[in-house]
Amino acid sequence: MFSSIEALAFDLDGTLVDSLPDLAAAANAMREHFGLPRLTDARVAGHVGDGLAKLVHRTLTDERDGVAEPAQWEAGLAFFARHYREHLADLTRPYAGVVEALELLRARRLPLAVVTNKPAAFAMPLLEQLGLAGYFSLILGGDSLPEKKPSALPLTHTAEVLGVAPAKLAMVGDSINDVLAARAAGCPVVAVSYGYGDLADGDADATIGNLVELYDLLKNDRA
Ligand SMILES: O=C(O)COP(=O)(O)O
Ligand SMILES: [Mg+2]
């Protein structure tokens, strides 16, 4: 399945970078502003994955399906965005093996993309501040196109821009939205076993615990 992969698309939060400490700090600064008690990082992790608008609803209500009152949500969104923009990479770091894997994949001349639900205004400067932006031919945020993951659109768009068929573009991610987007687009999908997602064994076509395993997966499959 991975033997003919010609390009890769990576999820960002929970796959390339552990952004939870800075996301949780922004969420808790926002909650404190409204006199709400702090949430643990683990609670915030369960609220990540569907973009900023939902993250604010969920971290204000501390419910996965929670919907905040409109005025509070609007003020919370502005507060969160202002705080997070200033602290994108205070504690956020690439996961172990990420830089090594990107180097190996680049050496193989495989075009690489980031397909995240994080708004582009956060994703771009975060990747730049961590020195990762240069590895990617394309960086799509959750608001870069009319639809975000689990829609197929970001991946079909990526395949088109990179000039490969969707079946030759592997998606690498940590959450069900990554798997659903890949399935909808006809892309093979690799799950990472760390991250914030709720993937069960067998949801993806393969599961790895470190991105360097990706290189072996492609190589061994190819052999
Ligand atoms: O910010 C989010 O909602 C999730 O971002 P991701 O798609 O990179 O995991
Ligand atoms: Mg993710």
From TrEMBL:
<dbReference type="GO" id="GO:0046295">
    <property type="term" value="P:glycolate biosynthetic process"/>
</dbReference>
<comment type="function">
    <text>Specifically catalyzes the dephosphorylation of 2-phosphoglycolate. Is involved in the dissimilation of the intracellular 2-phosphoglycolate formed during the DNA repair of 3'-phosphoglycolate ends, a major class of DNA lesions induced by oxidative stress.</text>
</comment>
<feature type="binding site">
    <location>
        <position position="174"/>
    </location>
    <ligand>
        <name>Mg(2+)</name>
    </ligand>
</feature>
<protein>
    <recommendedName>
        <fullName>Phosphoglycolate phosphatase</fullName>
        <ecNumber>3.1.3.18</ecNumber>
    </recommendedName>
</protein>
<feature type="active site" description="Nucleophile">
    <location>
        <position position="11"/>
    </location>
</feature>
<dbReference type="GO" id="GO:0005975">
    <property type="term" value="P:carbohydrate metabolic process"/>
</dbReference>
<keyword id="KW-0479">Metal-binding</keyword>
<dbReference type="GO" id="GO:0046872">
    <property type="term" value="F:metal ion binding"/>
</dbReference>
<dbReference type="GO" id="GO:0008967">
    <property type="term" value="F:phosphoglycolate phosphatase activity"/>
</dbReference>
<feature type="binding site">
    <location>
        <position position="13"/>
    </location>
    <ligand>
        <name>Mg(2+)</name>
    </ligand>
</feature>
<keyword id="KW-0119">Carbohydrate metabolism</keyword>
<keyword id="KW-0378">Hydrolase</keyword>
<comment type="similarity">
    <text>Belongs to the HAD-like hydrolase superfamily. CbbY/CbbZ/Gph/YieH family.</text>
</comment>
<keyword id="KW-0460">Magnesium</keyword>
<dbReference type="Pfam" id="PF13419">
    <property type="entry name" value="HAD_2"/>
</dbReference>
<dbReference type="InterPro" id="IPR023214">
    <property type="entry name" value="HAD_sf"/>
</dbReference>
<feature type="binding site">
    <location>
        <position position="11"/>
    </location>
    <ligand>
        <name>Mg(2+)</name>
    </ligand>
</feature>
<dbReference type="InterPro" id="IPR023198">
    <property type="entry name" value="PGP-like_dom2"/>
</dbReference>
<dbReference type="InterPro" id="IPR041492">
    <property type="entry name" value="HAD_2"/>
</dbReference>
<comment type="pathway">
    <text>Organic acid metabolism; glycolate biosynthesis; glycolate from 2-phosphoglycolate: step 1/1.</text>
</comment>
<dbReference type="GO" id="GO:0005829">
    <property type="term" value="C:cytosol"/>
</dbReference>
<dbReference type="InterPro" id="IPR006439">
    <property type="entry name" value="HAD-SF_hydro_IA"/>
</dbReference>
<dbReference type="InterPro" id="IPR037512">
    <property type="entry name" value="PGPase_prok"/>
</dbReference>
<dbReference type="InterPro" id="IPR036412">
    <property type="entry name" value="HAD-like_sf"/>
</dbReference>
<dbReference type="InterPro" id="IPR050155">
    <property type="entry name" value="HAD-like_hydrolase_sf"/>
</dbReference>
<dbReference type="GO" id="GO:0006281">
    <property type="term" value="P:DNA repair"/>
</dbReference>
